[in-house]
Amino acid sequence: MPTVAASPRIFELALPDLALERGGMVRSHRARGWWWSREGDTPESLQPGVPTVLLIHALTGSAQAGGQGGWWEPVIGPGRALDPDQFRIICFNNLGSCYGSSGPGSDGFPTVRNLELTSIDIARAQLLALDKLGITKVHLTTGGSLGGMVTLTLAALAPARFERILPLATSVAASAWVVGWNHVARQILRLDPGYPDNIGRGLEIARQLAILTYRAEPGLDVRQPRPAFANSASGGYPIQSYLEHQGAKLRNRFAAQAYELQLATMDHHDLLQPLPGDNRPAISRVHATTLVVDIDTDQLFTPAQAEVLAGHLRKAGARVERATMSSLHGHDAFLMEWETLAPILTRALQLEAPAS
Ligand SMILES: CC(=O)SCCNC(=O)CCNC(=O)[C@H](O)C(C)(C)COP(=O)(O)OP(=O)(O)OC[C@H]1O[C@@H](n2cnc3c(N)ncnc32)[C@H](O)[C@@H]1OP(=O)(O)O
Ligand SMILES: N[C@@H](CCO)C(=O)O
């Protein structure tokens, strides 16, 4: 019988309390999710036999992966690479963010100063959400950047649950380069006189700095070409007004404490360390068949790091394939290059499942 996709929707889950890896407890724990699947397959009532695709958003994304305004809108939908006629496509807002899941300011979220969050905490919250929904196997899990870190962490925490993973533009552990950029961004936030509750210019400038690391020189030259003459003191170069626009956009949609917590999850990501209670590198637990994808112009998570990640996964005994996205745009190409991304997603969905 042909299947028909329903409309995408947002849903809320009440989850068990979560003890955080570096101390603190999330009480009144909740997750906001986004769901697109066949007619009749709902968060309240799973239809048997619908394979699940779990999408994990990056630093400042939200659960809304597809549909109008979704961060992967062009690759999700009937007839597209991720087709809700065929797959149950879900995404959760990351723990500690500001788009509906437990995070700074929400009831029961720890209020201690200098709270630290890790990619393990985000992954554990997502495991609790999958438990609550009754999803025991995930056909494909994917995400870029921080989303890739959480993807790898999920596959290390629950190796039997995740059949295929597609970590994009990410690494086995955050490099000193990544931690260094995040450090500078954090110091900029803290210089703002309104930090943290009434932050303004600090969040804008931190985002401007970050945007330059998310892009690459050739793409900026194409999209923000230099005019023959401009005044830089008055912001007359297109790249200047572009960065101002990007900074203002984030200031209007994100919170300083949530931004800091998400930066920390990247900093602390290190699957070369054992998981709590284990003694081997976390990455060696991954069993999922994996397509490791890098971006040739990515200055944050380099192709060399993707090779290192693939090496660790092969050593762990996982089936591993590699692909490279070629782009002018650098790290954020995974949020921009739809024609390159779509066949990669199609390939990942078709990977052979690991022998159980
Ligand atoms: C809940 C949520 O909103 S989450 C939204 C989903 N986003 C994410 O998940 C990640 C966050 N997003 C991003 O990192 C980025 O938006 C990306 C990587 C997806 C794409 O970058 P974009 O900013 O859309 O593309 P691009 O770099 O071409 O910039 C386009 C924007 O800059 C503006 N712009 C472009 N050039 C200039 C310029 N010279 N001067 C001023 N503004 C400019 C455009 O008008 C456009 O503005 P708009 O976004 O308000 O419509
Ligand atoms: N541009 C991404 C971060 C880098 O992947 C975001 O804002 O979520």
UniProtKB/TrEMBL annotation:
The active site is at S145 (nucleophile), D298, H331. It catalyses: L-homoserine + acetyl-CoA = O-acetyl-L-homoserine + CoA. It is found in: Cytoplasm. The keyword Transferase applies. The gene is metXA. Substrate binds at R207, D332. Belongs to the AB hydrolase superfamily. MetX family. This is Homoserine O-acetyltransferase. GO terms for molecular function: homoserine O-acetyltransferase activity; hydrolase activity. Residues 51-315 form the AB hydrolase-1 domain.
